[in-house]
Design brief:
Strands 2-3-1-4 form a four-stranded antiparallel β-sheet. It is α+β, with helices and mostly antiparallel strands. The chain contains seven helices and four strands. The longest helix has 11 residues, at about 120-130. The protein has one domain (about 5-135): Nucleoside diphosphate kinase-like domain (Alpha-Beta Plaits, 2-Layer Sandwich). Bound molecules: guanosine-5'-diphosphate. Guanosine-5'-diphosphate binds near residues 59, 62, 111 and 117.
């Protein structure tokens, strides 16, 4: 059965630009339930750990610098087929290639500063949810 959980982050660019409300509204309208949420800021060690899978990529340093540059909103979202449906809602990594109306098409600036994160598998959704939230913060 398709998993029911995904982890999102509204990234520093979208928080700085005042898009928290609009993005959460689009997430709600798409039928996701918010089961955990916080405004927080990643430390260097947090961002390095969260994106460890990308540590060999040329953009890793830039990615860590960007993700620690200001507050983010982290949230666990629930819905049938959550990972796949949320990735459809946010659009392609590069906003220039993101379908019209997707969150990245509406709010992202570039392939690096692309407004939102969405987990890429059910397994990572669990790991990323537990990275940001203690059990008593998940409802
Ligand atoms: P996602 O699953 O769509 O977020 O994309 P990836 O897992 O491939 O990459 C993770 C994140 O790294 C992206 O969301 C971007 O913020 C960043 N990123 C990916 N490719 C590039 C790139 O070419 N340059 C920069 N600066 N950042 C990138």
């Amino acid at each position: 059965m398709a998993g029911t959980k995904t982890l999102t982050m509204i990234k520093p660019d979208a928080v700085r630009d005042g898009h928290i409300g609009a993005i959460l509204n689009q997430i709600n309208e798409a039928g996701f339930r918010i089961s955990a949420m916080k405004l927080t800021q990643l430390s260097q060690a947090d961002a390095e750990a969260f994106y460890a899978v990308h540590s060999e990529r040329p953009f890793y340093g830039e990615l860590v610098e960007f993700m620690t540059s200001g507050p983010i909103v982290a949230a666990i979202l629930e819905k049938e087929n959550a990972v796949e449906d949320f990735r459809k809602l946010i659009g392609a990594t590069n906003p220039a290639e993101a379908a019209e109306g997707t969150i990245r098409a509406r709010f992202a600036k570039s392939i690096g500063e692309n407004a939102v994160h969405g987990s890429d598998s059910d397994e990572n959704a669990e790991i990323e949810g537990d990275f940001h939230f203690a059990g008593r913060e998940q409802f």
